[in-house]
UniProtKB/TrEMBL annotation:
Name of a matching Pfam family: PRA-CH
Family: In the N-terminal section; belongs to the PRA-CH family. In the C-terminal section; belongs to the PRA-PH family.
Sorted UniProt keywords: Amino-acid biosynthesis, Cytoplasm, Histidine biosynthesis, Hydrolase
Superkingdom of source: Bacteria
Catalytic activity as recorded in UniProt: 1-(5-phospho-beta-D-ribosyl)-ATP + H2O = 1-(5-phospho-beta-D-ribosyl)-5'-AMP + diphosphate + H(+); 1-(5-phospho-beta-D-ribosyl)-5'-AMP + H2O = 1-(5-phospho-beta-D-ribosyl)-5-[(5-phospho-beta-D-ribosylamino)methylideneamino]imidazole-4-carboxamide
Annotated ranges, domain Phosphoribosyl-AMP cyclohydrolase: 45-118
GO biological process: L-histidine biosynthetic process
Native organism: bacterium (Candidatus Gribaldobacteria) CG08_land_8_20_14_0_20_39_15
Protein name: Histidine biosynthesis bifunctional protein HisIE
InterPro entries in the cross-refs: PRib_AMP_CycHydrolase_dom, PRib_AMP_CycHydrolase_sf
Gene Ontology molecular function terms on file: phosphoribosyl-AMP cyclohydrolase activity; phosphoribosyl-ATP diphosphatase activity
Length: 133
């Protein structure tokens, strides 16, 4: 049964067509976007996009997000110079999360790290049962 699974390729003719694929009401009109380095596969960060941010990203090639804190659009790198450029766009099986494979210029995280996911969590020995964390 698994051998029948294939990678789906959806050919999009317009930005409007792409926007219609995303289940915007389900995500409160802010779609989570996982950013992955296009060469290494490393997860760089998680951001959010509204429809305008996604349109701008597609038009300009520089990745633009929606800031939930400031409630405004922001393009990664506009103040730091650490831009992200879209290489490919993927939609998950539920049409409610995007994965962008990106070319990263400079550091990703505002802390100066190469990824926003630099805090490894470990389970204390006292909590270990028979499962892997």
């Amino acid at each position: 049964m698994l051998k029948n699974l294939k990678k789906a390729v959806i050919k999009i003719k317009s930005e409007e067509e792409l926007l219609k694929l995303i289940d915007w009401p389900k995500v409160g009109f802010l779609v989570p976007v996982i950013i992955q380095h296009y060469l290494t596969g490393n997860v760089l960060m998680l951001g959010f996009m509204n429809q305008e941010a996604l349109q701008r990203t597609l038009q300009e090639g520089k990745i633009t997000y929606y800031s939930r804190t400031r409630q405004t659009l922001w393009t990664k790198g506009e103040t730091s110079g650490n831009f992200q450029f879209i290489k490919s766009l993927w939609l998950d099986c539920d049409n409610d999360t995007l994965l962008i494979k990106a070319r990263q210029i400079g550091k990703v995280c505002h802390t100066g790290h190469k990824t926003c996911f630099y805090k490894k969590l470990i389970r204390p020995k006292a909590c270990e049962i028979n499962s892997k964390f």
